[in-house]
Hints:
This protein is mainly α. 83% of the residues lie in helices and 0% in strands. It has helices at residues 4-37, 43-75, 78-95, 104-127, 129-132, 138-165, 175-200, 213-233, 235-264, 269-297, 299-318, 323-350, 357-371, 374-386, 390-395, 397-408, 412-420. Helix 2 (43-75) runs antiparallel to helix 14. The protein is globular, with a radius of gyration of 20 Å.
Amino acid sequence: xxxxxxxxxxxxxxxxxxxxxxxxxxxxxxxxxxxxxxxxxxxxxxxxxxxxxxxxxxxxxxxxxxxxxxxxxxxxxxxxxxxxxxxxxxxxxxxxxxxxxxxxxxxxxxxxxxxxxxxxxxxxxxxxxxxxxxxxxxxxxxxxxxxxxxxxxxxxxxxxxxxxxxxxxxxxxxxxxxxxxxxxxxxxxxxxxxxxxxxxxxxxxxxxxxxxxxxxxxxxxxxxxxxxxxxxxxxxxxxxxxxxxxxxxxxxxxxxxxxxxxxxxxxxxxxxxxxxxxxxxxxxxxxxxxxxxxxxxxxxxxxxxxxxxxxxxxxxxxxxxxxxxxxxxxxxxxxxxxxxxxxxxxxxxxxxxxxxxxxxxxxxxxxxxxxxxxxxxxxxxxxxxxxxxxxxxxxxxxxxxxxxxxxxxxxxxxxxxxxxx
Length: 421
């Protein structure tokens, strides 16, 4: 590792902002959205509206990402923009405290604000990986970040689960009050544990600090088009990106839609939060194990294993009826979620030319945002048209089937050789 202090600060940011992923994105807010914010409308519509909310948020960040990438690159201020988007996410998260019954539009708006901050910050966060890690340690460092995220996000989720289940222990009057306080806790947690990254991550000086917004917009989209053409010259890297876009959309849809889907079919709040907590703590050792597995059997094979398990999860999810089913599937997601994402990030990094790391990692972050739009929209649309989300979860299986087929056609060693030319 180049600089252990920077590596640990980088991983700690994952610990910090993963509280948004667990409490807000995956667990507590989806339940609150259906039971409180969207109270009074049919269950399947509440689920669909949540899916559309996810889609809108990802569409906005996808459109903004080329501009943000240009601002970060030309100003050399990745750390500054990481701060800006983190603070935006914290504010959006804290504002959820003020959402009441029937305020599903307000809940959607505040969530989208928080989601833009979360995802926008991750564009800059991911781009730091080549700066802080040697190439032969990327698997481990990438997995370390995911493991820290699982631990940090899981720990706060555990605290929030206890607070929501036993509000009187915290001096709160009701479960609803505890739920709203849990939103504030995420913002505070995110702020405190982001401070080392804000202080420690590298932020080199630049000669391009005074460009206008119009020039950043022009530069961002021009560079996006240029990078698109450049990446296509690296045939195997391009083939991997296509596969990643597809299967990562499936992974993201499960993360974003599983809890509200479980709530729609009648699973209780305590089981939903508890099962997602299981996902977090199973994911801690498994993310690290997948990092080691990638070193031992090959990164591509490790991803294959994860995707096959995801395919099984979606098919079983279609038939899910009991809380036990949800707990079982949550455990399986924890087994592979961090590993699949960490290995994908490091595999991509291993096929990127050294002189194009910032450019290509920026494209990786931007393009994955566009790819993440389809899954939640498809889930929501199928649920709305059929008045049941079961076919929606089954439709997600197609992302893993297609992703596996596309990944099987990628020659990793050839891709790494192409990167050296």
